[in-house]
């Protein structure tokens, strides 16, 4: 059988038998084969893994040849170079972060027991991730919108004793897949870790080693990656499933996700996690909003299919019942229940307030997708009538609406603006505009009694789009400040103009007095 080496293989020279086997002396890494430009002779190019790590070229025939046992009778190795198999194997762990674009790989952690990491850099490892669709028509196929041929982009490396942590550019390795059926669901994952050059380690007795090793990873889905935010939630299976964070105070935040995070019909995937993975809609209450609401409890419901079936499938009643069960079991103050919903979840939020006018202190509703409800649910009565929306005026709930001035998914005129036109009827309205240094500006409209507010964000790159009902209107993008390379410098990033929930979860919308949406929601209605 013909012997052959591939780029990245570690080989040992026969003289390794004469040195300390704990060292890297006479170990080399294959770079590849090359052709001599003048003679046409094939050469092997390889790099030493010890000393000054010089790169060598040797005629391929000589490189692959046998050891001269007449000259070196004490050597047992048959060939001049043989593949080095006696390598340490280290398990690695991965961490994730929930970004505005969804949950992504954040870092890789490797620990070298009984040693200190002396030197490691951004070029030490090449980490590849393969992402496969878990459900639906494309189940088991590679995820079409992720390029697995390129290694994850390393942006930083940190060491702490025996531990090394390699950080990747956020939003470049998504852990969700967008199904053909229109859902975000966790991907099935495979990781490959290739060590490109040695890690410099120091043993407890002071020896310096140049370590080349193999690495294994047990992460098969996003739940296997460490994430301090997500680990604060537990999955609760009920008539309507939800993720629950048990807080330490007497407040409760109820969150309804957008249409992409629902389950497939009849809870086909039973994933009950996409609602806290696809954006900051679940985690924001544990981080960005914590300084305002404290350690509040959080219920992040997952639609069994779509929230547009709220009436048709009787989803309102079980949601209310489960909220009240949590209130009773966790000593929640009934006057400290807050509501947030985005897109289809914004529609659900409106329906909940109409059905239960005394349940919520305040509601933060972003791009409420009223106009899509009939078409999505296949019914004629899902969209609230004007008379039903007028019931919002009889509710104790304060409402702050957020949407883009254009929205490529749902029409602002038929969604946030339609609700606003009913809420502000016969009331004096104040109008204030803001323009940040990075990102889209916005205008906030508010009734003078402070109960109702609406922030509309500027959009750009406008073009004609076709709405869900076949209407022609304008769509575009919004702009946000992001630091995906975690260097402390924010850059402007463009997103679809439907994604205005990014601003809500950042506590960005602000009224004429400079009060932001979280602070308003927490204080509204207090004496």
Topology:
Elements (H helix, E strand, L loop, with lengths): L9 E4 L13 E9 L6 E7 L6 E5 H4 L17 E3 L4 E12 L2 E10 L3 E5 L5 E8 L21 E7 L2 E6 L7 E3 L5 E3 L1 E8 L3 E5 L4 E4 L1 E5 L16 E3 L5 E4 L6 E5 L33 H4 L3 E5 L14 H14 L7 E6 L1 H12 L6 E5 L6 H5 L8 H5 L7 E7 L11 H8 L5 E6 L7 E6 L4 E6 L2 E7 L5 E11 L8 E6 L4 H5 L11 H7 L4
Parallel strand pairs: 6-17, 20-21, 20-22, 22-23, 23-24, 24-27
Antiparallel strand pairs: 1-2, 1-5, 2-3, 3-4, 6-7, 7-11, 8-15, 9-14, 10-11, 12-13, 15-16, 18-19, 19-21, 25-26, 26-27, 28-29, 29-30
Description of the structure:
The radius of gyration is 29 Å and the shape is elongated. The mean pLDDT is 94. The longest helix is centred in the middle third of the chain and has 14 residues, at 316-329. 12% of the residues lie in helices and 34% in strands. The termini are far apart. With 527 residues, the protein is mainly beta. The chain is built from nine helices and 30 strands. A ten-stranded mixed beta sheet has the order 18-19-21-20-22-23-24-27-26-25, sandwiched between helices.
